[in-house]
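check this one:
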Amino acid sequence: MYFSLKDSGFKCGACGKIDKSVIQINKATQDAIKYIVLAPPKKLYSFNIQKNSIKELEIITKLYLNQKLEKDYKLEEIF
């Protein structure tokens, strides 16, 4: 599974090979992104993920926000 920074969403393996902006992610990171997007605000901080998925999520978050906000932010500045 891949996450496309250009298209702001998930891509399959075949589409991920075409899109140069993708980051390969594991299933737990995919599930975490889905949860963050779909969860009610009150439940947003009530989930746990593995350490390797936390790292992937940090990387995707930083790259995604920097691209969309058109400025290079440090994670500490964002959160």
